[in-house]
């Protein structure tokens, strides 16, 4: 059935609806433009209207009405995702969660919050309430929402201590509304969480989130400079391995990234300086400085003690995908990849990749815990030339035994492990029988036999004019 | 010079001095009797007098007077150590720290405390102040002091998350008084800490301690039963590897220990039941139960939900050296060892040891973090027959590549890595030039050429009457 946009808008007219083309366009976009591949394919996308519900009851109403009128619904938080997660491939309705931002309850070790709450507002609330903060957050902390982080993210600042969002214990509970004739409200815990976490809103709309908390400290933020990149990598790995030194970030960044792309850092580094960006708990500084003194690195910046002319801002805004953002602002030809370096030979793999690509692929790593070990999530900067060369770079990584999570794809599968997530697909069958939730993002729904031999192109995507 | 006991007592008569033989005898003992080897050699030991200072100034006075009168000084907290750490081999003065028990300051992530404070009092103070607690403690938490834990312990409940006391960051600062003509007061941090931590008071007296804190939670305590011991071991290891599930204890205990020695647990287990004792943060229970449901274990006890006729008390009082204590109470022929199982083949080594010894050595393991990996500190129960067989058991472990920290020795070296700790020896030369602090506990001081081919016997030890 074709979407009855006008009918849906009429039925929802008592809610906050935006139909102004310029602002609908703005609210139909995320940070997909980090990828030249996605930019070439998604730049024209635009919803028909945006609705901003104020309660779960209004979410239910939106889903019920859009179901009845066959209108696709794509949900967004702040739109800081990088894979077009929040972009409406087939037009229709963008469900904007900005008004559902209440922190409902804070307890020792956990918080209950609505999805539209900004990460920074959530942390501020928990800190003021009881000196707590969320275990991990994306580098877009200042602008991103907790719901978007869970639906579209995988980990971040804090993952060096707590692992990934998908790890047991890092999400406690999600409350989800389905898109059926009569939407249901479901509560997911434990084994049920992966049905809807990191599912881009393709199979349900998250209306309440329960997350674990950790103590909030006045983290000491630092940059440590190294002449040798692998020394920086070993430093970050070994520091992350120190169980008694509490850290929240350990980010090796290869030269000349800091010099070329970090404008407020540039006066203090040479082109050959590799950096490790760090966040260390203040009461762990003695242990940290003892560790540090055994190594070759040079602390060039401490947030609690420096004479820098300009405040560089939070060091985590130089890590995760902010590294790419800073490079992009200086050189629009830069893009990035997402590579997993793990196992006993991970340093050897990093060394090999560096040797193979040279300046075409500059390393930027994030220390994470995985299965009890320290590993690196890599978000290397890529000097983009052609899509074919980008694919080749991916394949060279894969041939070396490195898993790549391709950020130049808008589907769950291609950005993940290139296989169907049966739990997500099975739940979509129950929760979204018409396939109206964020259409085109789950290949398994559209084309179960897809072979992953080329980039998936959603047949229902709105054509560029 | 022979000790002038009478002269020292006279000079210290304005302090709290105990000379009553029965109570001096009691205050000259620790839990050395866990070891039949130590019991045979140390049971007769007794100081000449006990002094209980009320301040650092009084500690300085005691050390100055005893220095002048050549009186040995052995410091004790609560005397819960197991290696005779706090026992005066050569008589003289026992320095009892019970009156120096003040919690001086609590800050986010750290506490400043006097050494005589009981671990449980310290935790109660920090929890009431700001919902915090110490990162790790010995299973003697209810009776032991923080000073004794640092001077004589190595880790404990919490080490599965934070590693050992010796790991960087797990002690922040120690304030120490030397035993010289004019005692000095020194502050140690970072690389200087190992000079005096775990030194049994052989080279200085700790008068103030700064320790890191973690959030205090209402830990859910559990026993999980397994038919297969190695399944229990894998469960504990894998749970400790889950970065998102916050735990404070993971203790595999081989059958039939629970049935034979844990009287309040016995009604709920069969002789063949192996246990894992656990402490899990309440907000990690969902993640934990998800982990648990994937395994074969059966939760037989939850502190927050059970119908047991008698409260078994804290589960950590079934772990660490309380396992041995409970076995000893039932069967006085039981003693124990301390073995390190680490590395990629640690499970294979545990399997081998179990197969070699059968019931003569029952496994009891404690999950710990070490160098970024989960390993097991083992405190197996040994069915004691002869000292020669005990030594043989040690050698068989060592031949398998397992490091043994022999708890049947009263010296730092023999209970440790059987080598001189140069940092401790060098500091003793500065801080205790007459060698009066806890004499006989540091072989390197007495006999630098000692070969470790047999048990060290301190020549200055008071003879049994």
UniProtKB/TrEMBL annotation, chains A, B:
Residue ranges occupied by any FAD-binding PCMH-type domain in the UniProt entry: 42-216
InterPro entries assigned: FAD-bd_PCMH (IPR016166), FAD-bd_PCMH-like_sf (IPR036318), FAD-bd_PCMH_sub2 (IPR016169), FAD-linked_Oxase-like_C (IPR016164), Oxid_FAD_bind_N (IPR006094)
Molecular-function annotations in GO: D-lactate dehydrogenase (cytochrome) activity; D-lactate dehydrogenase (NAD+) activity; FAD binding
PANTHER family listed in its UniProt record: D-2-HYDROXYGLUTARATE DEHYDROGENASE, D-LACTATE DEHYDROGENASE
Top-level taxon in the UniProt lineage: Bacteria
Gene Ontology BP terms: lactate catabolic process
Alphabetized Pfam families for the sequence: FAD_binding_4
Taxonomic source organism: Halovulum marinum
Coiled coil: none
Alphabetical UniProt keywords: FAD, Flavoprotein
Protein name: FAD-binding protein
SUPFAM superfamilies: FAD-binding/transporter-associated domain-like (SSF56176), FAD-linked oxidases, C-terminal domain (SSF55103)
């Amino acid at each position: 059935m074709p979407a009855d946009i006008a009918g849906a808008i009429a039925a929802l007219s008592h809610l906050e609806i935006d139909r102004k083309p310029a602002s609908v366009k703005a609210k139909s976009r995320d940070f997909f433009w980090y990828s030249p591949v996605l930019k070439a394919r998604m730049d024209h996308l635009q919803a028909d209207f945006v609705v901003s519900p104020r309660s779960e009851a209004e979410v239910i109403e939106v889903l019920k009405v859009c179901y009845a009128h066959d209108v696709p619904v794509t949900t967004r938080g702040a739109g800081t995702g990088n894979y077009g997660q929040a972009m409406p491939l087939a037009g229709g309705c963008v469900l904007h969660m900005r008004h559902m931002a209440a922190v409902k309850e804070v307890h020792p070790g956990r918080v209950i919050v609505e999805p539209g709450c900004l990460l920074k507002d959530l942390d501020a609330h928990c800190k003021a309430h009881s000196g707590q903060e969320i275990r991990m957050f994306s580098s877009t902390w200042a602008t991103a929402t907790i719901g978007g982080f869970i639906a579209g993210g995988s980990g971040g600042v804090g993952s060096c201590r707590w692992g990934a969002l998908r790890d047991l214990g890092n999400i406690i509970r999600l409350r989800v509304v389905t898109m059926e004739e009569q939407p249901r409200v479901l509560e997911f815990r434990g084994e049920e969480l992966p049905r809807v976490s990191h599912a881009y809103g393709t199979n349900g709309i998250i209306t309440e989130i329960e997350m674990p908390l950790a103590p909030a400290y006045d983290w000491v933020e630092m940059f440590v400079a190294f002449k040798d990149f692998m020394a920086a990598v070993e430093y970050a790995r070994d520091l992350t391995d120190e169980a008694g030194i509490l850290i929240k970030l350990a980010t090796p960044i290869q030269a000349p990234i800091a010099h070329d792309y970090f404008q407020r850092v540039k006066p203090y580094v040479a082109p050959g300086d590799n950096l490790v960006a760090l966040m260390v708990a203040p009461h762990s500084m003695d242990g940290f400085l003892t560790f540090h003194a055994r190594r070759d690195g040079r602390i060039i910046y401490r947030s609690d003690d420096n004479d820098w002319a300009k405040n560089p801002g939070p060091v985590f805004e130089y890590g995760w995908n902010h590294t790419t953002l800073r490079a992009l602002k200086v050189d629009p030809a830069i893009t990035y990849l997402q590579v997993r370096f793990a196992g006993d030979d991970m340093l050897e793999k990093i060394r090999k990749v560096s040797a193979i690509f040279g300046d075409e692929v500059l390393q930027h790593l994030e220390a994470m815990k995985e299965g009890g070990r320290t590993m690196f999530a890599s978000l290397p900067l890529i000097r983009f030339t052609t899509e074919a060369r980008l694919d080749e770079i991916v394949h060279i990584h894969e041939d070396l035994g490195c898993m790549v999570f391709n950020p130049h794809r808008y589907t769950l599968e291609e950005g993940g492990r290139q296989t169907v997530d049966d739990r997500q697909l099975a739940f979509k069958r129950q929760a979204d029988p018409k396939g109206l939730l964020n259409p085109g993002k789950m290949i398994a729904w559209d084309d179960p036999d897809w072979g992953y031999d080329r980039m998936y192109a959603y047949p229902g995507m709105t054509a560029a004019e």
